[in-house]
Amino acid sequence: MYFADHNPPHFHVLGRDGAAQVRIDTLEVIQMAGKVGRIQRRRSMSIGKLTHVRVVGPQSLSLSWDDKRSATVDLASVIAARASLGPISNPVEFARVAASDDGWSLEWPCGIDFGTAQLRRWADEQSGKIMPAKDFRHWMDRHGLSLNTAADALGLSRRTIAYYVSGEQPVPKTVMLATEGYDHRRAA
User: Fold this and answer.
1) What is the pLDDT of residues 119-166, one digit of tens each?
2) Which of 63, 115, 60, 119 is CA-nearest to residue 91?
3) With the C-alpha atoms ordered 174, 176, 182, 185, is the resulting torsion angle positive or negative?
4) In whole angstroms, how far apart are CA 52 and each of 36, 108, 177?
5) How far apart are CA 27 and CA 6, in angstroms?
6) Gap between the Cα atoms of 85 and 113, Å rounded
7) In this predicted model, what pLDDT tens digit does every residue of 73-125 receive, in sequence order?
8) Quick one: DSSP state of residue 101?
9) pTM of this prediction?
């Protein structure tokens, strides 16, 4: 934002091939310059707001996001692993879930909430689009790999491996497939 800039309140996004002005309140692109096509513009501004939530099981939800992505997320293992989530282990309380007014989270009246980014990550892990961090860590432990040796084995940086192990970054499907290839080569 710039001092004494024009309304509505907005921020500027600068890219390699263009620039945009985006409204702060709605995240609508209000001005675009450069060689960014309509499809690219929509993808770049899709930030994963929830548009629909429906309970489909005792601890499972059907979710839809603003980029037309839909998925079913089973929260049973998440709820079982954390005592603080005990209230939503009750099916009656679990069924009281709702998307927040702004679409950035799911909320229960008991005060528990999950952000959309985490929900999307769980959906991607459960569908096999990304590898769960615990599975990646188990793969390293099974082969006795340190951060450095795992990085060498996969052709990645040590920092990237550390991000995956900590869960700070999702483990992409390409890396998941590389770990399977590593296992196969070791077994041969």
Assistant:
1) 988 998 898 888 988 999 999 999 999 999 999 999 999 999 999 998
2) 60
3) negative
4) 29, 15, 32
5) 16
6) 10
7) 999 999 999 999 999 999 999 999 999 998 989 999 999 999 988 898 899 88
8) T
9) 0.64
